[in-house]
Amino acid sequence: MSDAEGSSAGREIWIEKYRPQTLDEVHGQGDIVDRLQSYIERDDLPHLLFSGPAGVGKTTCATAIAREVYADDWRGNFLELNASDQRGIDVVRDRIKNFARSSFGGFDYRIIFLDEADSLTSDAQSALRRTMEQFADNTRFILSCNYSSRIIDPIQSRCAVFRFSPLSDDAIGAQVRQIADAEDIDTTEDGLDAIVYAAGGDMRRAINTLQAAATTGDVVDEEAVYTVTGTARPEEIESMVEAAIEGNFPRARSTLETLLVDSGMAGGDVIDQLHRSAWDFDLDDRRTVQLMERLGEADYRITEGANERVQLEAMLAALALEE
C-alpha cells in the first residue's frame, strides 16, 4: 500500500480495503476454495452457482476467480450485475447478450457475474437459461444467491453448485485480529468475542463492527461493540428467558422493555438472538424445545405484520405459563 493510500485509511471502508484479492486470501471456506482453484488450474471453469447467507465470501470468490483467470485484464472480461436492481427480462436480453456477443482477444471465455440472482423474475430466469446455452462456448456465468431453491431447476442443473456456510467463529476472529493489528487498534479479548458473537457468521458485519467500534474510543472492548451494534449481551437474553420460565413474568417483561426501548433493538433482532443462543442457555431439552416452538410462532406473526412487542410479550407469557 502506498503512503497516499495509508494516509486516507481512516476514511476508507474496511470491508473493501481488506476484501481478499485472491482465493488463497478467502477465510473460512477452505473446501470451496480448493475446488475453485482446481477448476482454474485445469482451465476447466463451468458455470457456477454460489448460494449462502450474506457476508460469507460469494462475491469475493467471484471477483477472485476473474483476477486469477485474467490477471490485469480482469475488468474488461468480467461483467458484474446486481439482479435485485435489474430484475427483468430486458437485462438478460440486452446487457448480458451484448457482453457475451462482444469480441475479445486472448481468452477462451468471459465471465458474467449475476449477484442476487434469486431476485430475477421467472421470465428472466427462463431467458437466462437460453442465453447460457446459446453462449456456452465463450461465456461462463457465476450466479450468486441467498436461496438456491429460488433458482429454477434448468439453471441449477447447468451449474456447479457451491453452498457457502456461515463463517466459523475462528475464521472471523482471525480476520478481525489481523485487521486490528494492521490498523493499530487496541482490542480486548472480550471485545473480540463480542464482535464474533454480533457477526453471527457474517464477515462483513464483523469488519464493519470493528471499524465502527474503533471510532468510539481508544480501546475496542465489549461495551463499545454492543453499543455500536445495538446487540444485547447473551446474558441479558438468557436472563429474560430464565425469568419467564421461572414464572417471573414481570421481570422478563421488564428486561424485554429495556431491550426494545433503552437499547433500541427491533423485535426481529431479539428473536434472532434468542434463536442463535437457545441451545447455549442452561435449560433442559424440554424447555429449550418449548422456547423454539414459541419463537417460531412469534417470528411468523411478526413477519406477517403483527405488533412486535405484543408478540414477544405473548411468547414470554406462554413460557411463564408452561408447567
From TrEMBL:
<keyword id="KW-0067">ATP-binding</keyword>
<keyword id="KW-0547">Nucleotide-binding</keyword>
<feature type="domain" description="AAA+ ATPase">
    <location>
        <begin position="44"/>
        <end position="168"/>
    </location>
</feature>
<dbReference type="InterPro" id="IPR027417">
    <property type="entry name" value="P-loop_NTPase"/>
</dbReference>
<comment type="similarity">
    <text>Belongs to the activator 1 small subunits family. RfcS subfamily.</text>
</comment>
<keyword id="KW-0235">DNA replication</keyword>
<dbReference type="Pfam" id="PF00004">
    <property type="entry name" value="AAA"/>
</dbReference>
<dbReference type="GO" id="GO:0005524">
    <property type="term" value="F:ATP binding"/>
</dbReference>
<dbReference type="InterPro" id="IPR050238">
    <property type="entry name" value="DNA_Rep/Repair_Clamp_Loader"/>
</dbReference>
<dbReference type="InterPro" id="IPR047854">
    <property type="entry name" value="RFC_lid"/>
</dbReference>
<dbReference type="InterPro" id="IPR023748">
    <property type="entry name" value="Rep_factor-C_ssu_arc"/>
</dbReference>
<dbReference type="InterPro" id="IPR003959">
    <property type="entry name" value="ATPase_AAA_core"/>
</dbReference>
<feature type="binding site">
    <location>
        <begin position="52"/>
        <end position="59"/>
    </location>
    <ligand>
        <name>ATP</name>
    </ligand>
</feature>
<dbReference type="GO" id="GO:0006260">
    <property type="term" value="P:DNA replication"/>
</dbReference>
<dbReference type="Pfam" id="PF08542">
    <property type="entry name" value="Rep_fac_C"/>
</dbReference>
<dbReference type="InterPro" id="IPR008921">
    <property type="entry name" value="DNA_pol3_clamp-load_cplx_C"/>
</dbReference>
<comment type="function">
    <text>Part of the RFC clamp loader complex which loads the PCNA sliding clamp onto DNA.</text>
</comment>
<dbReference type="InterPro" id="IPR013748">
    <property type="entry name" value="Rep_factorC_C"/>
</dbReference>
<comment type="subunit">
    <text>Heteromultimer composed of small subunits (RfcS) and large subunits (RfcL).</text>
</comment>
<dbReference type="GO" id="GO:0003689">
    <property type="term" value="F:DNA clamp loader activity"/>
</dbReference>
<protein>
    <recommendedName>
        <fullName>Replication factor C small subunit</fullName>
    </recommendedName>
</protein>
<dbReference type="InterPro" id="IPR003593">
    <property type="entry name" value="AAA+_ATPase"/>
</dbReference>
